[in-house]
Amino acid sequence: MTSADTLEPPRLSLGVFGWLKKNLFSTWYNTVLTFIALWFIYTVLSQMIVWAFTSARWQVITANLRLFMVGPYPPDQVWRVWLVLCIVSTLMGLSAGVFGGTMRTFARWLAAAYATLIVLDVIAEQTQPFVEFTRRWSTGQFMSALPGIVWLLINLALLGGGWWIGRERAAWRGRIVAAWFVSFFVTVALLQGFGRDTWLPEVSTTLWGGLLLTFMLATVSIVVSFPLGVLLALGRRSKLPAIKIFCILYIELVRGVPLVTILYMTQIMLPLFLPGQLRIDNVTRAIAGMTLFTAAYMAENVRGGLQAIPLGQIEAAHALGLNEALTTILIVLPQALRMVIPAIVGLFISLFKDTTLATIVALLELLGVGRSVLAQAEFMGLQTEVYLFIAAIFFVFSYAMSFASYRVEEALGVGKR
Amino acid sequence: MTASSSSRAIPFWRDVRVLTVLSQIVFVLLLALAAGFLYSNLSNAMRERGLVAGFDFLERESGFEIGESLIPYKPSDLYARAFLVGVLNTLLVSVIGIFFATILGVFTGIARLSSNWLVNRIAAVYIEIIRNTPLLVQLVFIYFGVFVKLPPVRDTLDFGGIVFANQRGVFLPRPVPSPTYDTWLSFVLFAIVGAFFLWLFLSRHPRYRYTFYPLTVPLAWFVILPLLGWFLVETAPLTLEIPERGRFNFTGGIALSPEFSALLSGLVIYTAAFIAEVVRGGLQSVRRGQIEAARAIGLTEAQVLYLIIFPQALRVIVPPLTSQYLNLAKNSSLAIAIGYPDLFNVGATIANQTGQPVPVIMLIMATYLTMSLTTSLLMNIYNTRVQVLEK
Fold first, then answer.
1. What is the pLDDT of residue B1?
2. Among the ranges given (A1-5, A180-184, B99-103), the one the predictor scored with the smallest mean pLDDT
3. In a mutagenesis test of the A interface, which of B41, B49, B116 is the best target, namely the one with the most A β-carbons within 10 Å?
4. Which residue of A242, A269, A273 is in closest CB contact with B28?
5. Among all residues of chain B, which has the CA nearest to that of A394?
6. A261 with B373: Cβ contact below 8 A
7. Cα–Cα nearest to B162, from B105, B244, B275, B69
8. Which of A203, A229, A255 is the last residue of a domain?
9. A129 or B21, greater pLDDT
10. Is the pLDDT of residue A153 over 90?
11. pLDDT at residue A27 above 90?
12. Diameter of chain A by CA atoms?
């Protein structure tokens, strides 16, 4: 054998059988496990598929789709919700173009979702919307006359258009972040309206419901609890004992009790705490409870970020002559908050799921709508279908958000810089 | 000289020492003002609506039924006793839930790390589905979609002739002590005490400390002694009472209500998914170098697991595990959605009946707080022990 007889490099690819052997049948007990797992998957899946396609009555979902989405929101005002969706689509498209990465993945998913809904709508093909359309159009209610499929097409177009416009405009990053922030207030104003006789009649929050309410509860609570949480976190690390003790007490008190008790408390005690002439509705009370609750958890997350700032940063800032307040605002917080973005997304996901507890204080969010649908005589006993549908909606959004959080974590290089 | 001149140079409103005191005084004053404002509103509102503060209502007769209770309870009992029933029910479901969630969670966490691709995927799908859907939806699904829809008594589901399930709940066999039970119990007690001291001795012994003996010897002692006792006494100390089908329902054995079963299984399935992630994170946190080094000095796979991986993983696992246990206890308050009479459910009923929500809410929150703080205290003690052992 000469040195010229070089061995071939080892094969990197295992092939199908190699893969099977390595991952499923490597040892005798792995083989046994594989067969048990296969049997398990077969039993579960076959039963579920048979049920879903034969005995399940999905009409309960299709017949109540509007209720599930917006609850008791007045049908002739639903165009506002569509308009809000248009804003989101546009911003999503622009973000996908400008930021790329995760946002692009999201925009793709959203586009796929719109396309699926459009196809489903075409397949369902009911003549009803057209009759409704001509009736409303002739009476001058142009906005509410548009059928859902048109709105979906508009949304798809806006998504694509935003993407196309945003592609080569990396300089817009700041503006888009600002736009997302502003859109939050625009959304609330648009959904709520201004007064009885204005062009945008008021829709009281008691009429909000379904997925819309779920999103509003979670978003408003997280946005309001953010500044509270930052203040509490700073207070907990403060050198002033009075402030420190107050913050610790608040955080530990809230974290020691379940969210339901806090919701129940704000539901019953908030009206008692406010001066007599001030009345606040159910939804606001629930938002107050969720905000107070989330602020404590937000504070703990932010504190984690604050603790991770090296002392050298603070000492350097002091050496430059910055005082405590400026050091905190200019040096500590920007770094700490960047670090806790994934944790805040995680908090948002759990808050998003926890909005279901609002059902217990009689709000008509997604789960509440589900229960009221099940209370109708014609849909009795369809719990499996309704709750599976609700669970699926929650799963899609939570999973997408945790995926985004994971990607953001990678992009920010948390723990690497 | 320099000190006095510098202190003269700084006016008091820029002196840090003055400012710290001043800002705290202002903060406390503001807090007191806010509290006073809220308190006056509260007392006004309570007077207007005829609500009274204080806990006098606890001494009155409750007058409502509670579906299930660990202690004897009837509607003519006091509100205080009704509340106690709720507290005990919460504790019951939490303790049993924690036990089973830990087992299922550790099992799933290890399955998630399995080299078998299918097992690994099944665990991953389970974890992702459960973690990304709300617990309340899972609970109502399990209760209304599964337990309420079980067949009626005449078509009871039969699991091997000892466990039964129908619309009325789940029925398990119950161990019943026989006359020789007391003699056997002394064997068991001796086994427990002996095992504890054996463990104490061996885990500190310089020679056996880093072997399997601190685990295996007490365990063997703990298993063998009760077995020995079982055969030494004349008749079996425990007999199983199997539930029997009566005319309308099962009698004998342990009867679990559908509410309890649904709440327990919901909490276990939900928390186990989170515990699985904690366990996986803990096991993965042990650096590869540690494992390779252990193999290099000739430890067997079991020794690597027991002596190298577990002690280090445990340090990472315990703190988040504590918060999962606390979450389970707090999440048991969702029982109100399916009608299990836990602390919060009973509390809400009391608040409705007495028309005095304020003190009742205080009582409920104080109880949960006590439970949370006690648990975290105990787990902190355990945690410090685990951390110290490592050094």
1. 43
2. A1-5
3. B116
4. A242
5. B133
6. no
7. B244
8. A203
9. B21
10. no
11. no
12. 100
Contact B137 A394 (CB under 8 A): yes
CATH number for the domain spanning A323: value is 1.10.3720.10
Report how far Cα B225 is from the mean position of its chain's Cα atoms: 30
- How many CA atoms, within 13 angstroms, populate the side-chain half-sphere of residue A185? 5
- Smallest Cα distance from B299 to chain A, Å: 21
pLDDT tens for B134-167 read: 999 999 999 998 998 888 888 888 888 888 888 8
Same domain assignment for residues A354 and A273: yes
- B169-172 β-sheet, strand order: B157-159, B163-166, B169-172, B254-256
Residue B345 lies in a domain: yes
ipTM over 0.95? The verdict is no
Are B358 and A359 within 8 A, CB to CB? Answer: no
Inter-chain touch B116–A37, beta carbons under 8 Å: yes
Q: Are A275 and B41 within 8 A, CB to CB?
A: yes
Would you say residue A372 lies in a domain? no
> Which candidate from B41, B331, B348 shows the least CB-CB separation from A258?
B331
Domain annotation covers residue B57: no
* Chain B residues whose beta carbon lies within 8 Å of the beta carbon of residue A371: 140
Give mean pLDDT, residues B224-235: 85
pTM of the model: 0.87
Is the predicted pLDDT of residue A5 greater than 60, yes or no? yes
SS3 at position B241: strand
Q: Do B141 and A34 touch (CB under 8 A)?
A: no
Give contacts of B129 with chain A, Cβ < 8 Å: 395
Residues of chain A contacting B331 with CB distance shorter than 8 Å: 258
Picking from A16, A272, A352, A383 by the largest number of B CB atoms within 10 A of its own CB, the best residue to mutate is A272
The parent domain of residue B119 ranges over 88-173+242-390
Q: Do A367 and B31 touch (CB under 8 A)?
A: no
Cβ neighbours of B137 (radius 10 Å): 26
- Tell me what pLDDT residue A52 has: 86
**Two tokens at A109?**
């998913």
Q: How far is B373 from chain A (nearest CA, A)?
A: 7
What are the pLDDT digits (tens) for A106-139?
888 888 888 888 777 776 655 455 555 555 555 5
Task: Name the average pLDDT for chain A.
Answer: 84
Number of domains in chain A: 2
| Cα–Cα distance, B46 to B49 (Å, whole number) | 5
| Single-letter residue type at A391 | A
Task: Count up the domains in chain B and report the number.
Answer: 1
Q: Where do runs of H (alpha helix) occur along B79-179?
A: 79-112, 117-131, 135-140
Same domain for A69 and A194, yes or no, is yes
Under a CB-based contact definition with an 8 Å cutoff, are residues B325 and B375 in contact? Answer: yes
**C-beta of residue B69 within 8 angstroms of C-beta of residue B85:** yes
Nearest to A81 by CA among A94, A93, A67: A67
Long-range contacts of A60-65 (CB under 8 A, 24+ apart): A60/A373, A60/A379, A60/A382, A60/A385, A60/A386, A61/A385, A61/A386, A61/A389, A62/A124, A64/A369, A64/A373, A64/A379
Secondary structure element (H or E) that encloses residue A405, with its range: helix A383-412
Rounded mean pLDDT of chain B? 87
Place of tokens 């009689």: A362
Question: B37-56, pLDDT tens digit by residue?
Answer: 988 888 888 888 777 777 77
Whether the Cβ atoms of residue A222 and residue A345 lie closer than 8 Å to each other: no
What SS3 state is found at B174?
Answer: strand
Chain B environment of A258 (Cβ under 8 Å): 330-331, 333-334, 344, 368
What is the number of other CB atoms lying within 10 angstroms of the CB of residue B198? 18
Per-residue three-class SS string for A101-115: HHHHHHHHHHHHHHH
Q: What is the pLDDT of residue A234?
A: 93
Q: Name which of A123-127, A195-199, A406-410, B70-74 the model is least confident about.
A: A123-127
